[in-house]
């Protein structure tokens, strides 16, 4: 790998033949057979609901969107689907990836993958669609649990940091999501209130006193629909449903930012800060310091064996630990499965 010095490393499916044989086998015989279920969440897909940055830019104010996305999707993958081996990775720039690596998951067809992404998608419609979330009267447990997660962040994230009801321009976007019959009332009263927190309280009070009409649901549904439109994860469907899609390898270097694509510890996702993730130059500097210090101590000892472990002495170490823990669990469950199989065979 070092000799080839690749510009980037993408990971795709396991194929029926070796990659270099793909032109030599019979047409159609070269088939993707297994692949992790992957998710790609990109901040650019939230441009209509974040007010701090746009396109490739991110900041600490909008990063909460990724924190909520990880909590919501990870909970569902674990509790609703029973998937055990999930690795979350920072992409190095403006988003996150998730790799689900359970053996049974790797063999899923595209149709089943599409079904899973469909289950996990609530925000629908492109740029021209204003209202992107429509809840049915009976709330699915997945939706309810997702709302409960969003509720923990909504005030700080949406009302304070994003200030989504700050001025007429911003609240007009929210008015577009509620029935026209209450627009005027809300407009007038929003002007009387001083900040997003007060205006949100007023909005909640108004819609809960409103009767449901045939086409417009009011009450808590409407409140939840707005919260979901502003906070619910937006998945890149095509990345997840295909079995041929490629995704950047964990620990690769993002070409634009120089940041390392590092695994995220889900237990500590609220503390994860993309701006403190090591870059290729910061790692090189650290390695230089380590080698000069060690060179002073004992020049003869700096053999190859020593150097291979050097990365563990850099600020990459905690991220590598997360990755190793993930691999260890995967290995344990693989060995467990093999043992079960051999026990079953003995029974006969
Ligand atoms: Zn931002």
From TrEMBL:
Keywords noted in UniProt: DNA replication, DNA-directed RNA polymerase, Metal-binding, Nucleotidyltransferase, Primosome, Transcription, Transferase, Zinc
Catalytic class of the enzyme: transferase
SUPFAM superfamilies: Prim-pol domain
Protein's organism: Panthera pardus (Leopard)
CDD domains documented for this protein: AE_Prim_S (cd04860)
A Gene Ontology molecular function term of the record: DNA-directed RNA polymerase activity
One protein family per Pfam: DNA_primase_S
Name of encoding gene: PRIM1
A single GO BP: DNA replication initiation
Name of the protein described by the UniProt record: DNA primase
EC number(s) from the headed UniProt entry: 2.7.7.-
InterPro entries: DNA_primase_S, DNA_primase_ssu_euk/arc
Reported cofactor(s): Mg(2+); Mn(2+)
Keyword Membrane on entry: no
Catalyses which reaction(s): ssDNA + n NTP = ssDNA/pppN(pN)n-1 hybrid + (n-1) diphosphate
Family, similarity comment: Belongs to the eukaryotic-type primase small subunit family.
PANTHER family noted in UniProt: DNA PRIMASE SMALL SUBUNIT (PTHR10536)
Superkingdom of origin organism: Eukaryota
GO CC, one annotated term: alpha DNA polymerase:primase complex
């Amino acid at each position: 790998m070092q000799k080839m010095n690749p510009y980037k490393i993408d990971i795709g499916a396991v194929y029926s033949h070796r990659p270099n044989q793909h032109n030599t086998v019979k047409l159609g015989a070269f088939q993707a057979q297994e692949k992790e279920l992957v998710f790609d969440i990109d901040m650019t897909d939230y441009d209509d609901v974040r007010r701090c940055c746009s396109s490739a830019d991110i900041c600490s104010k909008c990063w909460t969107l990724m924190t909520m996305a990880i909590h919501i999707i990870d909970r569902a993958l674990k509790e609703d689907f029973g998937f055990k081996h999930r690795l979350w990775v920072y992409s190095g720039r403006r988003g996150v990836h998730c790799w689900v690596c359970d053996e049974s998951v790797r063999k899923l067809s595209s149709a089943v993958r599409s079904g899973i992404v469909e289950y996990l998608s609530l925000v629908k419609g492109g740029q021209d669609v204003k209202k992107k979330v429509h809840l049915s009267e009976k709330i699915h447990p997945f939706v309810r649990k997702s709302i409960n997660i969003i509720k923990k962040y909504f005030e700080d994230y949406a009302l304070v940091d994003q200030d989504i009801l700050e001025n007429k321009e911003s609240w007009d976007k929210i008015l577009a999501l509620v029935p026209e019959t209450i627009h005027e009332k809300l407009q007038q009263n929003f002007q009387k209130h001083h900040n997003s927190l007060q205006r949100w309280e007023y909005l909640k009070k108004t819609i809960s006193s409103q009767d449901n009409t045939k086409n417009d649901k009011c009450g808590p549904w409407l409140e939840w629909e707005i919260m979901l439109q502003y906070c619910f994860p937006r998945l890149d469907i095509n990345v997840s449903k295909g079995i041929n899609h490629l995704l950047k390898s964990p620990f690769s270097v993002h070409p634009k930012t120089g940041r390392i694509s590092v695994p995220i510890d889900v237990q500590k996702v609220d503390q994860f800060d993309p701006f403190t993730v090591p870059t290729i130059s910061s790692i090189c500097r650290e390695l230089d310091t380590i080698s000069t210090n060690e060179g002073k101590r004992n020049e003869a000892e700096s053999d190859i064996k020593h150097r291979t472990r050097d990365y563990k002495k850099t600020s990459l170490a905690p991220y590598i630990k997360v990755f190793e823990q993930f691999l260890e669990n995967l290995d344990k469950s693989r060995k467990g499965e093999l043992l079960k199989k051999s026990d079953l065979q003995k029974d006969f």
